[in-house]
Write a structure and sequence with these properties.
CATH class of the largest domain: Alpha Beta
CATH topology of the largest domain: FAD/NAD(P)-binding domain
CATH architecture of the largest domain: 3-Layer(bba) Sandwich
Number of domains: 3
Mean pLDDT: 95
Helix content: 25-40%
Shape: globular
Radius of gyration: 24 Å
Number of helices: 13
Strand content: 15-25%
Low-confidence stretches: none
CATH superfamily of the largest domain: FAD/NAD(P)-binding domain
Number of strands: 22
Largest sheet: 7 strands, mixed
Length: 480
């Protein structure tokens, strides 16, 4: 058996692991990065990029169908499912290729292929061929789709986001289980591409929306396109000849049984920690087997082990994974002089249509008592000028500020261009701008961002305790 001694071992070569490796290299050259699966990162291979490629095709089809709004008639929209998915894979492979190019540039002595597990604190086995003694360890093993037991007998009729993009063509029908980010994005995209979709949730959640009014508004909008029940009652899911039989209680029609080509399970992801033999690591584990981790440093207990990215389930989005990797790589490099990283304002986007964005403090999900410290501003996009011009005038934006200081702390939005508006609001929250300072910024005309100004003005009125009635026509016109 080969034995190695290193300063830092990084388990996992995904987004967080690669960021940790680059940060650790600034402190020592005696480092290894261990990968047991495919190189290429979850985002590039099966996550962010292929899903957005599918969504782009879906938006194109959806916009073509809506062209009549502008007096443009394109006839029947014909969708070639084989070509749709072929383009998804082709462009996806280019994104993966760029990641592989950067991995190829890593010196061969720094790369170890195989699945790692703890033999003892600071001691790893990789497969049956190698033992690595590491002074510091960064765990960046990512996550995998969680498949509840009721779906595990569906065989090839079971899809997850890892396998959806490998279909030879678009199916005729898909039942989507899970109304979170992944289920909502992929389910709506399939619907726009002509697939018959029914979506089943359980807890009432929808795309991570915290505010009840926004969530109800969004659920109504989605139900105009496909059947969505966020509190569904599913009686049976069975593999039958020709597909998957699903029996459920339809909210209007009562008990139904329908046949679908596939079932897409998007019921969350679980951290890839099971094979690490963490019971040998010396770390303190919670009741779920997760190492106790300090969010600001990513350090587990007071040990020389750091847990980052999707593996720690703290903020499962790419930009946070990369940032956590940098924090952990630096801390592993300078250990024991561990330093907290200044965390970014929480920010997430759902690429549905309309889009969903959440920024900063989740005031919309707080209890009535907890909300007492915050003021809430609101605007609707149904009469917003630019949104009406482009035929995308649906949505709500709510913005939040501290009552005492007037400092802007966050927002939640379901509406047009939320991915862009979310960035502006995340930057404002991270800079701890006041609402007054935000209103002093320029707002061009006519743009969707004028809806942000409407919400901020409403918020400002709440802060100064006035109730000025605003003519919505003047909010986005010459009198604004």
């Amino acid at each position: 058996m080969t034995k190695r001694e290193v300063d830092i071992a990084i388990i996992g070569a995904g987004t967080a692991g690669l960021a940790a490796y680059n940060a650790a290299r600034k402190h020592t050259d005696n480092v290894v990065i261990i990968e047991g699966g495919q190189y290429g990162t979850t985002c590039a291979r099966v996550g962010c990029m292929p899903s957005k490629l599918l969504i782009a095709a879906a938006e194109s089809a959806h916009d073509a169908r809506k062209a009549g709004l502008f007096g443009i008639h394109v006839g029947d929209v014909m969708i070639n499912g084989e070509r749709v998915l072929a383009r998804v894979r082709k462009e996806r492979d280019k994104f993966v290729g760029s990641v592989l190019t950067s991995i190829d540039a890593i010196p061969s002595q720094h790369k170890v292929v195989g699945y790692a597990r703890f033999l003892a604190p600071g001691m790893l086995a990789v497969g049956k061929e190698m033992e690595i003694e590491a002074d510091r360890i960064v765990i960046a093993t990512g996550s995998s789709p969680n498949i509840p037991e009721m779906f595990q007998g569906l065989g090839e009729r079971l899809l997850v986001n890892d396998s959806l993009f490998e279909l030879p063509s678009l199916p005729e029908s898909v039942a989507v289980f899970g109304s979170g980010v992944v289920g909502l994005e992929l389910g709506q995209a399939l619907s726009h591409l002509g697939v018959r979709v029914r979506m089943f949730g359980r807890s009432g959640s929808l795309g991570g929306i915290a505010d009840e009014e926004i969530r109800n508004y969004a659920e109504h909008c989605f139900n105009e396109e496909f059947y969505l029940d966020t509190r569904s009652e599913v009686i049976d899911v069975s593999l039958v000849k020709g597909g998957v039989s699903i029996s459920f209680i339809h909210r209007d029609k009562g008990a139904l049984t329908e046949l679908f080509d596939y079932t897409l399970v998007a019921t969350g992801r679980s951290p890839n920690l099971e094979g690490l033999a963490l019971h040998n690591s010396g770390l303190t584990l919670d009741e779920n087997g997760m190492p106790l981790t300090e969010p600001s440093t990513l350090q587990c207990d007071n040990s020389a082990v750091f847990l980052v990215g999707d593996a720690n389930q703290q903020a499962p989005v790419l930009h946070e994974a990369a940032y956590e990797g940098r924090i952990a790589g630096d801390n592993a490099g300078r250990y024991p002089n561990v330093m907290p990283g200044e965390r970014m304002t929480p920010f997430s986007v759902v690429f549905s249509s309309p889009q969903i964005a959440s920024v900063g403090v989740p005031v919309g999900g707080m209890s009535v008592a907890e909300r007492d410290s915050y003021a809430v501003g609101r605007s609707l996009f149904e009469d917003q000028g630019r949104s009406k011009v482009i035929g995308k005038n649906r949505g709500i934006l709510k913005v939040y500020a501290e009552c005492n200081s007037g400092i802007f702390v966050g927002a939640e939005m379901f509406g047009p261009a939320a991915e862009h508006i979310g960035h502006l609001l995340a930057w404002a929250a991270q800079q701890r701008m006041t609402v007054s300072a935000m209103l002093a910024m320029p707002f061009y005309h006519p743009v969707i961002e004028e809806g942000v100004r409407t919400a901020l003005r409403n918020l400002h009125e709440k802060l100064i305790k006035t109730d000025l009635e605003v003519n919505p026509c003047m909010e986005c016109g010459p009198g604004s």
